[in-house]
Amino acid sequence: MKQEEKHTTNQKNLLKECEQKVKISEIKEGDSEINVEGEITEKTDAREVRSKYGRVLMVADATLKDETGKIVLTLWNEQVRQVMVGNKIKIENGYAKSFRNILQLSTGKYGKITVI
C-alpha cells in the first residue's frame, strides 16, 4: 500500500470513529448529526401531506426505542415502506426538533436510515 493510500485509509477510519452513536436519552431539541440505533416498537399508518412547495409527500411516525428511552421518528416517503415494527435500525446524520411540543427525530435530506 502506498503512503498516500495508507493516509486516506487512516483518515476514513478516524472519521468513522468520530461518528459516535448516542443514546436516545441523550438527544435534545436542536441536536444534529445524530447517529443512533434502536428498535421500532410502533408505527402509525402513512398519511399524505402537502409540502410548502406543493409536493404531495407520504409521512408516518414511528417509535424508536433503545435501552435508555424512546423517541418519535418521522418517516418520509420511501422510509414509510422501508421501516417496519420490530426492525432494528441505524440512523446516521439525523436531527431532533420539537413538533407540537413532542421531541422528534428525522433524517431530513442529508441523513440515512438503515435496517440492520
How does the SSE layout of this entry go?
Blueprint: H1 3-18, E1 34-43, E2 47-50, E3 56-66, E4 69-76, H2 78-82, E5 88-99, E6 102-106, E7 112-115
Parallel strand pairs: 4-6
Antiparallel strand pairs: 1-3, 1-5, 2-3, 3-4, 5-6, 5-7
> How is the main sheet built?
5 strands, mixed, barrel
Q: What is the terminal separation in angstroms?
A: 32 Å
Kindly report the spatial arrangement of strands forming the biggest sheet: 1-3-4-6-5
What's the total count of β strands?
7
The low-pLDDT segments are none
The structure class reads alpha+beta
Give the % helix: 10-25%
Identify the overall geometry.
globular
**Average pLDDT metric:** 88
Q: State the order of secondary-structure elements, H for helix, E for strand.
A: HEEEEHEEE
